[in-house]
Amino acid sequence: MAEATSGSESSLTLIPAGPSETDASALVGRAAVDGVVVYSVAQSDPHLAAARARGLPLVVCDQPKDVIDLPFVGIDDRAAIRPVARALVEAGHRRIGILAIRLERDRHDGPVDPAVLPGAALHVQRDRVLGALEEFGAAGIATECVPVITRHINDHANCLSAAREMLTTHPDVTAVLCTTDSMALGVLEYARDQGIAVPRELSVTGFDGIRNALIMGLSTVLQPNRAKGAAAGRMLLSLLDAHLADQLPAGPPPREILATTFHAGQTVAPPRQ
């Protein structure tokens, strides 16, 4: 975003999206800004409501993607996860676990009831999990038997504890699909500490394409994070120009869906016997 808007004599103000509805209204309401990019919040998030209330040009990046009356930049998470899920299935895996980060605004660390997944508030993780389950189901895997474990915060300690929980409570899994590379790196670290050989004894996949994951040879999905930020910045500048000229955009709000790429890596192999 900074690069895309650098020639427009504009500056960026970062507003953290904390849990407090009062803080959200105050922070967004008082911010000296001409336009807003809302990045990866739930549809019910008070920061999005406060941004809407300002009546300024507004772009949503990543989520909520179901708000069709706002400009949007993101990826198709449900389709993007399928290649890594398919790679596990094609390698012969049938006992697969899924590690994901937060699905709701309220904190939950631990197993997820499959029945709540379709209604999860945070669309990015919801769609990645559902996309993977759809791929598994198409291969004849009973999706209700696929363990899904989440952590609210995507940091090193939580990723490592999620890996420990998955592999101790479900020792029969031969593969772990992770909806972030950070989660997958946690699995690789835990497996190494436990003497579990990857991929000979355990296959692992991620999502994002962060530098450390690529260095580790992780099988993952590359998403264009820099391009996503740049697209959101350009879209906001276009809306600002129209706003200043009192020109209402014609037609539906713009939506830009960026492509992702499957990176085969070296962490998928046939299941252990």
TrEMBL record:
Domain named Transcriptional regulator LacI/GalR-like sensor: residues: 86-267
A single MF term (Gene Ontology): DNA-binding transcription factor activity
Keywords: DNA-binding, Transcription, Transcription regulation
Gene3D superfamilies listed in its UniProt record: 3.40.50.2300
A Pfam family reported for this protein in Swiss-Prot or TrEMBL: Peripla_BP_3
Superkingdom as given in the UniProt entry: Bacteria
UniProt key word Acyltransferase: no
Full protein name: Substrate-binding domain-containing protein
Organism: Corynebacterium marinum
Lineage, broadest ranks: Bacteria, Bacillati, Actinomycetota, Actinomycetes, Mycobacteriales
